[in-house]
Design brief:
Blueprint (H helix, E strand, L loop, with lengths): L25 E7 L9 E3 L6 E4 L4 E5 L4 E6 L5 E7 L2 E6 L4 E6 L5 E6 L4 E7 L4 E6 L4 E6 L5 E6 L4 E6 L4 E6 L4 E6 L5 E6 L9 E4 L4 E6 L3 E6 L5 E6 L4 E7 L4 E6 L4 E9 L2 E9 L7 E3 L6 E5 L25 E6 L1
Antiparallel strand pairs: 1-28, 2-3, 3-4, 4-5, 6-7, 7-8, 8-9, 10-11, 11-12, 12-13, 14-15, 15-16, 16-17, 18-19, 19-20, 20-21, 22-23, 23-24, 24-25, 26-27, 27-28
Length: 338
């Protein structure tokens, strides 16, 4: 995901906020996890329900119901996201140009697979039984065979890939951030099928997909979400969301699309009225800097993280744009539900 400086002040306004009027989503609880470093993706293992949170040089595995860290895996380099398949967790290690593979229950490291340069987003595709690492600096994606744990090839994407989705039938769609494009490629042959312009979108990052209705949702700078037809690639409409979005999720059971917006510190909740009509139900307050998220499709809860920041120091000639620093131990998990 995009490297955005960690937030200005975090905050949930009250311990038990009022219910949001439109969707019913609100903050259920906030749990301090502590630990050093920034953060990127949050990914939930569907088999265990554990939340894996990447934090640069270490990875937290969290039991969200108990509100505690089960394991803090250290010694990693610039990690970004996690994908799950066959009882294993595949972690994109951007600083080492590889995917590291762990046992999803014991958390023991099992193997490694070389990728392109700077793997960031990561996705498991059930149709091909492959994990795809999207390499931001080399502008391609590496396919990893889950049966062997070895790379199966690369696909050139023509730009910097961000989040991706699978249609479950052999096609992968990824946002290309620096080209404002949606690229479709074959999960088995690794042949690019099409480059689709994301009209009205600047710097697409997070992505989600409604497979049943062939709709792809991309969140963009400027507080915009595009809705594209996966079959034609055409943008059918745009939706106004919060500022600084970096992740998107779709809940097929409720027809809701979510955008986590680090700039505005909100979660935009959008209802899919039909394939071409979408209604913003509300923008739920979360925390400044809470830019990535995960959805538990079973409980329909949402998870975001952020930290409390100190005020930025005064500007100097040597450092005219000083950044605020993180309050030590303030990293926290925020849980939303209805």
């Amino acid at each position: 995901m995009k490297r955005i400086a960690l937030c200005a002040a975090l905050l949930c306004a009250a311990a038990v906020p009022a219910l949001a009027a439109g969707s019913g989503y609100h903050v259920l609880k906030s749990v301090t996890l502590g630990g050093d470093g920034g953060f990127d993706y949050l990914n939930m293992d569907p088999a265990t329900g554990y939340l894996w949170i990447t934090r640069g040089s270490h990875l937290m595995v969290v039991d969200v119901d108990a509100g505690k860290v089960l394991k803090d895996i250290t010694g990693l380099m610039g990690i970004h996201g996690t994908a799950f398949a066959g009882g294993k967790a595949y972690v994109s290690e951007g600083g080492a140009n590889k995917v590291s593979v762990f046992d999803a229950k014991s958390f023991a490291k099992l193997s490694e697979a070389a990728t392109g340069t700077g793997p960031d987003g990561i996705l498991y595709d059930e149709a091909s039984k492959r994990v795809f690492a999207f390499n931001g600096r080399s502008g391609d994606a590496t396919a990893i065979d889950t049966a062997t744990g070895k790379p199966a090839g690369n696909v050139a994407l023509g730009g910097k890939p961000e989040a991706a989705s699978s249609d479950g039938a052999g096609t992968i769609f990824t946002n290309v951030e620096n080209k404002n494009e949606l690229v479709a490629f074959d999960a088995k042959t690794l042949a690019v099928k099409a480059h689709y312009p994301l009209t009205g979108c600047d710097s697409p990052s997070g992505q989600a997909m409604d497979v049943a209705h062939s709709r792809i949702f991309a969140v963009c700078d400027g507080g915009v979400m595009t809705v594209s037809d996966a079959k034609s690639g055409k943008v059918v409409t745009t939706v106004k969301i919060g500022d600084g979005p970096d992740a998107a999720r779709f809940d097929a059971a409720t027809g809701l699309i979510f955008s986590s917006n680090g700039g505005s510190g909100t979660m935009t909740v959008v209802h899919e009225d039909s394939s071409d009509k979408y209604t913003v139900l509300d923008n739920v307050e979360t925390a400044k800097g809470a830019r990535t998220m995960e959805l538990d499709s079973k409980s329909h809860r949402l998870f975001v993280v952020s930290s409390v920041m100190n005020p930025a120091p005064a500007a100097t000639a040597d450092n005219p744009r000083p950044r605020p620093t993180v309050v030590p131990g303030s990293f926290r998990l925020i849980v939303l539900g209805r």
